[in-house]
Structure formats: C-alpha cells, structure tokens
Amino acid sequence: MNGKEHSGISLIIMILYGLFLGLINKTDLIWACVGVYLGGILPDILEPPLDYTHRQYFHSWEFLKRLGILLPITFVLSIFFQWMLFVFLIIIGYIAHLLADSTTKMGLPRVQRKGRWNK
To answer: How far from the centroid of its chain's Cα atoms is residue 41's Cα?
Structure first.
C-alpha cells in the first residue's frame, strides 16, 4: 500500500471513531485526526518502504500484538492524563496501518528467529 492509501484508511477510521464517540467539538476531532494520521504514517517512517523487504519488526505481527496490549492501557490512562488520549489515537493509526499491510500479498512477518524474519 502506498502512503495515500494508509492516510486515507487512517482518516476514515478516525472519522468513524469520532462519530461513534460523539466528538462534536471540531478542535477535538481535528486533534484526533492528527493523532491517527501520525500513527498511520509512523510505521513507514520507522521502516521506510525502500524495497519489498522493508517490513521488519515495526511491521510485524509481534509488534501488532504489543500494540494491542498497549491500546487498552493507554485508553485507561487517558482518563487520568488527557495527553494519553493522543497516544491512544496514534496507536489506533499504527494498528490500522499494520492491519492494512496484512491484507497485501507481502503480508506481515510473524516473529524473529535467529536474526531472520519468517512469515
């Protein structure tokens, strides 16, 4: 997937999420879109898509699993610390990116064993 597709998917997810939560305040919705957008492009910043082998740890099922563990933790922390909601939204965008990549022919690598990535 290219950057425009990732950005579009992330923003669509954020708008749906905003509608679900009833984010009426335009400022909150804008910040939410910024957070999800940043999360949506972050994997390709960490591992630039220079060739078809760019998907390593930050594009793996293992990292997706770790983000899945962090997601509810950041949501609960956002109740006490407002800035954690922004982190939560970045994680949502990152997860959306990885899920979109998982549907491509290349998919996501699963785990690292002895320095090699396996599908």
So the answer is: 8
Written as one string, the DSSP assignment of 66-83 is HHHHHHHHHHHHHHH-TH
Phi and psi, residue 108, nearest 5°: -115, 140
Does the pLDDT of residue 94 top 90, yes or no? Answer: yes
**Domain boundary assignment for the chain:** 3-118
3-state SS, residue 110: coil
- The C-alpha angle with vertex 90 and arms to 119 and 28, in degrees rounded to 5, equals 150
Is this prediction's pTM over 0.85?
no
DSSP β-bridge partners for residue 112? 117
CB 60 within 8 A of CB 25: no
**Coil, helix or strand at residue 118:** strand
C-alpha dihedral sign at 40, 41, 46, 50: positive
| CB 57 within 8 Å of CB 3 | no
pLDDT per residue over 71-90, tens digit each?
999 989 988 998 898 999 89
